Structure formats: C-alpha cells, structure tokens
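Input set for joint prediction.
Command: fold jointly, output tokens.
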Amino acid sequence: MQAECVYEKIDRKLMTKPFLFFLLVLLASTVVIAIRFAKGLGFVSNMSDGYPWGIWITYDVVVGTAFGCGGYALAILIYILNKREFTPLIRSALLTSALGYSLAGFSVVVDLGRYWNMYGLLLPTRWNLSSVLLEVALCIMAYTLVLWVEFLPTFAERFGIDVKKLEKVTMVAVILGLILPTMHQSSLGSLHLISTVKLSPLWHSSFLPLLFLVSVVLMGYGMTAVESLLSSYSFKRPYETHLLKKLSPYMIYLGFGWLILRFLDLIFFEKMKYLFSDSFLSVMFFLEVFLFLVPSVLFWSDRQNLTPRRIFIYSFLYVLGGTLYRFNVYLVAWSPGDNWVYFPSFMETLITLGIVSLEVLIYLVIVKKFPVLPATQGVK
Amino acid sequence: MSRWLKSGPVGEELSRRDFLKICTIVTATLGLPYTMVGKIEAAVKSKQRPPVIWLHFQECTGCTETLLRVSKPDVGKLILELISLDYHETLMAAAGHQAEEVLTQMVSKNEGKYICVVEGSVPLKEGGIYCKIGGKKAVDILKEVGGRSKAIVAVGNCASFGGVQSVDPNPTGATGVYKIIKDKPVINIPGCPPNAYNILSTLMYVLTFSKIPKLDKYNRPKFAYGRLIHSHCPRRAHFDSGRFAEKFGDEGHRQGWCLYKLGCKGPVTYANCPTTNFNEEDVWPISIGHPCVGCTEPKVGFHIPVMERVQPLEITPPAGYPPIKTKEGKVSAGGIALASGAVGAALGAAAMAASKLPDKEDEES
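tokens >
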C-alpha cells in the first residue's frame, strides 16, 4: 500500500550537536529513573494520595500519545477518505506515532507504583471488565504493536525484504490501527467522566470522549505538519507545502468543530455561568479556546497564501491547544480538594524530558538509517 | 440508708466482695492506678480504723445527708467498719452533756491522730457569738478540736468558703475553715453538697498514704476539682454547636441543649460532677435541666446570681483543633524551574523555527 510512494533515508552524520544534547538529557534522566526504581515513587516525584497521577501520565501518556496520533489521523485520510496524495507523509507520521506510543508505555511502567504486577494485563482472568483504564491499557499495548507492524515495511525495505510479502500483515495492522486509537483516545476522555466533582464543570462534560477524539485527530494533523516542516528545515529538504496546504481544510473543520462541540456542551448543560467564576480557571479556559480559535481563523483567512512559516505557526498552536486541553482536564482544572497541591518535582520533570529526548534520538537515528522521509525526486 | 436497713443488722460482717468493691470505687475516684486497690485494702483492713470527728457549725446537714445516701458502702459499713466515726451530732445516739463528754474524751485519746471533718461555716462577727454548741462558740470548738487533729477536711461550701451564710451582707461573718486554721492542713471538699465519693475518697487517701492529696489554690483535691465542669459536660456538644436553651421549658430546654444562656456556671466551675455521678445515678443540676450554680467555687456559688451568664474561663480549647483540611502535596522550586525552563525552551525553539521557516509560498530550499 505504501509502495505508491518512494522513500529515502537521510544520509547524514548522526552525531550532531543537538543529538549530543538530547543524549546528555537522556543520560541524566536514566540516572533518575534508576533512582525511582531503587527508592520508589515518593522519592522522585511530587505525586500524592490527592494527585495519584502527575506529569508522567498527563504529558508522557495522554499528551504523548496524542502527539503520536499523526499516523492515525493520516490513516483516516488515506485509507478511509481515500486521499492517497497524503501517502508521502505517512511513514514519518507512523514513526512519530510508534515512538510516542512506545515511550508512553514506558512512562506507565515508570509511573506504576507496583509495576511488578503489570503482567496481570496479559491475563484475562485478572481483568476488570468495567474499567476504562483496562481498555486504555490493552488498546495502547495493542496499538503500539500495530504501529510497529505498520512501520515494518520501512525496516523490510532497508534490509531488502520484499515489501509485498508484508502487505497482508500490514493490511490487518492498518485496519486495527484505525479502530484502536478511536477507542482509547476517546477513552482517555471517558476516564474523567467519573471526575464529576473533582473536575471543574467547564471541563467535565459528557462530551469528554468526543472532545478528546476530535482534538486528537486535529493534534495528529498539526503534529504531522510541524514535524514535516521541521525535518524539511533541519535536513534541508524541500518543504511539503503543497501537501500540508491540502491538510489545512481538515484542520480548520476539526478546529471549528471542536469549538462548536465545546460550546454546545457549555450552552446545552447551562455551564456558561462558570466562564468567569474562577479567575485562574477562566484564564486557562479562554487560553485553551483561543489556541483552537486563532489558528482556525488564521488558517481560513490565509488559505490562499499559506507559507511554511504560517502553516508551522498555526499547526503548532493547534498542538499547543490540544496539549493545554489535556493538561487542563488531567491536572489544572482537576482538583482532589483545595488543600492539595501538585507541581512536578525536578526529578519527575527530568524523567519526562529524558523520555522526550529518547523519542527525538530514536527518530533521528531511524530517519537517518532507514527510508522514512519521501524521496526528494520521487514524490509521486 | 434503706438498703442498709434491709441488708441486716448494723455491724454485719462486710463481705470480701463488697469490701473490694468499695476499695476499687475509692481508688478509681482518686484516679489512682488499679494496683493501688491492694494498698487501700490493706490500710482499710488494719485494726486501727482512723478516728474521725465530725463537727457541725452553720449548715443544713445536707453534706451528711448526701454521705448517708451512698450505698457502696452504705453508711453503716462506712462508720462501723471503714472509719471510726467517734463524734457526729446527726448520727450519734448520745445527746447533750453526754455527747460533749465523748468529744472531749476522743480528742484527748486520739490527739494528733484523728481526722477532723467540719461541716458548716464558722461565724466570726462579734467574737463568734452566732453559733454555739454546749455553750461553746463554734470558732473555739474548731480551734480546739481542729487544732489537735491530724488534718482537717472541710466538707461543703459552707465549711470551705462560708457558703450561703457568707452572702452579702454576711450578718454572722461566716467564714471558711481554711481562713481560720492556718497551722493544720485543711482539705476543702466544697459543693452544695459535695459528691459523697469525693468525701470518702479524700478520707481514704489520707488514711492510706498518711498525707494530703494534691490540692489546688483553694485547697481542693485536684483529683476531684482539677477540671472545669464545662470540659466534660454531657451537653458540651450543644455549646460548641451553638444550640442553647433560651428559656426553661422551651424547645431547646426540652431537647437537652446547653444551659449556658440560662446562667450555667459550668464554664467557670471546677468539679468532677459530670464524671463522677451524684447519688450513684446521673443526678446533678445539669443532668436534670438546671444550670450549674457553681457550688464548688468560692466566688461563684451564692455570689453570682443563678441565672446570670458568666464569661467562660476557657473560651478556646487548650490545644487548637486540627484543621479539617491540611495542606497536602508538595511543590518544589527545582521542579518549577525545570518545568518552566523546558516549556520555555520548547516554545522558544518553536518560535525560532517559525522565524527560520520561509514566509514565501512554495519555496523550495
């Protein structure tokens, strides 16, 4: 399926200055991860009985997998809406997805207090079938596997294996890859359906699963655009502006669609009165709304003359908006009681930064050693 | 008394079971450890029962009456087996000169060994002429009998602080014993009447340990008068919640709410009434819906009108209540620095990248 497009590896030096920087962060973080397993969660993190999850779940898992939804978002376009012209973007998007999901899984291992009980996830006898979290865990595990299978042709190509032989496997993977994220990305919103009193009414909504799903697709496109532009810039390759321009209408639809859903919920459930009730949360709410509204309006008004810079800024704002929305639901507007405070500790943040660094490092290695990015001469 | 009459003739042998019961009650009232029961038992068992001489001056005999109402031990066992009550105007069969003869004999026979219990205040005005027994002035009897005793126990508010007779203008100059006798230890057991077990326990303590229990500034034993009634009041929860009886017979009064607004002196009165029940039942003013009158205090009972509100002595509890919500979780400066640094760096890098990206359409670099 992916043979419609030709990809190439970026034949460049691996050890660049940024690479070394990320390596350094990773090393520091590895030390902290070792401390976490030696001394326990309480030693490295600021998580408490009130805030049983912190930045690892919020950023590395919830936001991290959302960043990694480029593959899913593009797959919808390519395989469901049959927009084959986006195929050149798919491999790098899949790579980002696979990395995002794998490292989210790793974060969970770091985050779980009793990680040694994790094998229970593989034993159906131990499943709690009414748990949304079980669904999320199983789905993410399965989808991580699926992503790597989807990405398999890239490795196969590198080692000279006939990609055609893999097609049957990847076909199944693609189908699963469309179903699984739909399930668990909306479930990440469903998780907070039970936070009826802990989550601010501005965020708590029966639309949570839908809002999470819509914004994750938007973030997927945004991330794909950001990543494509950044790699074009840093690897000095032609910008894929023509493709990204075609992507922009979908982002506009989703951006406005998300806003409409967001306000429909507020109006329909008579929650508009909370808009100005809490100065801090109100600011967070409007910031979040503007991060969806501004790029949508600008994309629309600039639709005739979109440049790489503008696409980058608008897409980045979308990604930022989706990130803020997730942070708001998981940490900022979520409160176990006004006597509880949480802010990630130094070591906690360092682990997150280390995981981000690891993601960047693996990305750099793979795009430089395997054919991921579309060939400069061979587009279509 | 009635129980004593039913239980058999005076002087019937005290069963070991009853005897131990008494010792245990006394030990508990004194707030002594259980191991002390044996010591008290040994002291009480000794052949030498402590001689007690009980003097009555300006009083109503209410204190004696309350002692008579105790059933564990009943008064027969008390005066015949536990102590040697050698002189008690209400209880002794003798009268007139015969009775006074006994007093003189007992005082000389047990000089320095007996405990002198005083009930009633001593008038001092005009040389103390307002109370005479057998032609002798109360103050002289007190000085003679009390002065030759081992210790004096002033029972009731009258003997302790002057009582109702000392109310302004105090026509007889009624005075508490401890203001008159300075060279002997005087233990005050105020109350109108005091709880019988406080009297009994104090006597047993002196008998067992041959010393005076710890006293407060008004010579009251701390084991009985160490805490405010308010601190252990069964209606305290209503006080704390602001539920007050406003009038006798109103809804709050019938519901058993706090009697503070009706003039209860519990917040300024030190006594163990809420914890050591009167008359072996829970029968004391607050329990039956009447405000405490402060009868164990020198300046409250009979001095502040019964229905007058008082300023509680301990408005705030001695130790602060723990807050309902305590601050939980932590925020560290290093964490804020690193997180904001990372977010700042990411946004900065994005801004940098945006500025480097061409702002021209379809530029191929």
